[in-house]
Amino acid sequence: MQFTVIQRVVGLLLMIFSSTLLPPLLVSLGYGDGAHNTFLLAFAVTLITGIVLWLPVCRLRRELRLRDGFAVVVLFWTVLGVFGALPLALSEHPGLSVTDAVFESMSGLTTTGATVITGLDALPRSILYYRQQLQWLGGMGIIVLAVAILPMLGIGGMQLYRAEMPGPMKDSKLTPRITETAKTLWYIYLSLTIACALAYWSAGMTPFDAIGHSFSTVAIGGFSTHDASMGYYHGNALIELSAIVFMFLAGINFTLHFYAWRGRSPRPYLRDTESRTYAIILGSAALITSAYLYVSGTYRDPADALLHGMFQAVSIGTTTGFTTTEYHAWPGFLPVMLLFISFIGGCANSTAGGMKVIRFVLLVKQGLREIGRLIHPNAVIPIKVGNKCLPDRVIDAVWGFFAAYVGVFTLMMLLLMMFGLDQVTAFSAVAACLNNLGPGLGDVGANYADIPAAAKWVLMVAMLLGRLEIFTLLVLFTPTFWRK
Hints:
64% helix, 2 strands, mainly alpha, globular
C-alpha cells in the first residue's frame, strides 16, 4: 500500500468535489433563500481539507497500483459521504442531525434515494437542488469523472476505473484509452440528462423541477423536489411516460448506448442478451402489476391501472425509486413482487443498482447446466452469452458475488431486527439500501426518519456495499489485501 499516493489522490479529489458546491451556492444567491453562507462554509472546509491532504505530498510522482485503487475508491466514497453532508447538517432547514445528514448524503451519492427529510416542498431551493445534484454526480460515479481529469495531473486512472465500474464486464473499454472511455461515458450521461430535462419541461414541469428530476432520473436515484415524488404531477400522463422512458434508458448498459449512437442503429440493443432480458423482465412486471391493479379494483380505469403499473414496475425494477402513489400499500403480492424485482436491478455498466441482469442470466444458466449434468454427468455443457462461451472463472465470480450478497443481506437484516425493526421493515430496508432502491415497505415505506440511528448507520454501509458491488469494499477486510 502506498499511503502517500492515496493521500495525494484523496486530497485532489476532495478539491475537485469542493467545486460542486458552487452551483448550489449560485442557486441560493439566485433565489435569495438565505442558504448561501452554508454552501460557502462547506466549500471552504472541503477545499481546505483537500489542500491540507494534498500539499505535503504534491511533488510525489508514483503510479497507482490496483490495491491503491480499491482503497482510494472506498476511502473517497466514505469521505465524500461525510463532506457531502456538510450543507445538510449546517443548514437551518432541514436542520438534520449528523447521522441524518450523512445518511441523506450517502443515499444521494450512492443513488439510493432513501430519505430522512420530510417537508421537501418548504425547503430552500438550493438545498433541493443540492440533493438532486448529489445523485447526478453519484450516478456514473464521481471516480469515473475523475479518471478523465487525474491523468492531466500525473496520476493514472485505470486502477480507479476497474475498482469503480459496476458489473462483471468492467474490463471492456469503449475506446483504446481509459481517459477517453471515461469522457465518452460522461458525454452519453450528460446527453441523456439534457434530453430528459427538456422532455420534463415540455411535459409541464417548471425548469427547476425539470432539471432536478432529470438529475435523479438519469442517475436512477429517485430523489424528488416534492414530498409526493412524481405523484405531485398526478394526472399529467406525459410526465410519467417521459420518466418511464428515461428510467428504462438509464438502466441499459451505457456501452450499448455508445455503440447504438456510433452506428446510428438500435441493433446493439436487440442483439444483446442482457438488454433483451432486462426488457422482458420489466415488461412482464409491468403487465402483471397493471392487470392485478385493475382486477383487484385498485384502479377502475384500465388506463390508470396501466400507467401506474408501468411506472412503478419500471421505477422499482430499475431501482430508481420514484413513486406516483403509495405502492407499498397496494393489495396482495404486488409490493413484495416489485421489491424482489429490484434484486435483479438494471444492466451492468448502467446507473442502476441491484445484482445486475447479467448476473441473474448467468445464475439461471448455471442452474440449468447443473440440472442437465444430473441427466448427463459426463457432458461438457458450456455457458454462452450470445455466441460467446464464458470461462468458468466468470461463473465462479458470479456465484461468489451471490454468496457474499446473501451473507451480507442476512447479517444486516438481523442487525436491524436487533435494533428494534420488525421483520418486514428490516427485510425491505436492507433490500432497498443494498439494491440502491430507496423506498421500502413497512415503517420505511414513506421515509427513514423514524428508525433508530444505529439502524441508519448499518443501512449506510449497505448503500456503500451496493454501490461498490460488495467486493470492492469487502476486499479491504481480507488479510490477503494487506499482505505484501
